Amino acid sequence: MSAETADDLRVWIDQDLCTGDGLCAQYAPEVFELDIDGLAYVKNDTGDLLQEPGVRADVPGRLLLEVIDSAKECPGDCIHVERRADGVEVAGPDAD
Predict the structure, then answer these.
(1) Distance (Å, rounded) from C-alpha 46 to C-alpha 79?
(2) How far apart are CA 87 and CA 96, in angstroms?
(3) Which of 92, 37, 94 is nearest to 70 (CA)?
(4) Model confidence over 18-27: pLDDT tens digits?
(5) How many whole angstroms separate alpha carbon 24 and alpha carbon 54?
(6) Phi, psi at residue 10, to the nearest 5°?
(7) Max Cα separation, the chain?
(8) Cα–Cα distance between 88 and 36 in angstroms, integer?
(9) Quick check: 88 pLDDT over 90?
(10) CA 78, CA 85: separation in Å to the nearest integer?
(11) Which of 26, 60, 62, 65 is buried most, with the most CB atoms less than 10 Å from its CB?
């Protein structure tokens, strides 16, 4: 990953690929949560679960590494971390 800061990044989960493993919620519980359907979702800065398909959440600065690690370690390859400015994925299945 280049020199992006967390303020420049957003994260989203493709629930169609989510395995419900919960690793992301262990890495960054302020950002990810498993819902009653057994799938992971992102949360906004007030802790509300965002359940619309493809909805993005900001990456908190203090959790930047945890969110990146979640994307890298996700067994379902369903976590996407992208730059806000141009939508380029910096971590996740579509990152270079």
Answers:
(1) 20
(2) 13
(3) 92
(4) 999 999 999 9
(5) 17
(6) -130, 160
(7) 36
(8) 31
(9) yes
(10) 21
(11) 60
Q: Indicate the helix (H) or strand (E) that contains 68.
A: helix 64-73
With 0.85 as the threshold, say if the pTM is over it. Answer: yes
With beta carbons less than 8 A apart as the criterion, state whether 2 and 81 touch. no
Residue carrying the six token digits 């067994």: 75
What gap in Å lies between CA 5 and CA 53, rounded to an integer? 25
The amino acid occupying position 56 is: R
Q: What is the arithmetic mean of pLDDT over 44-69?
A: 94
Tokens at 6, concatenated: 């967390």
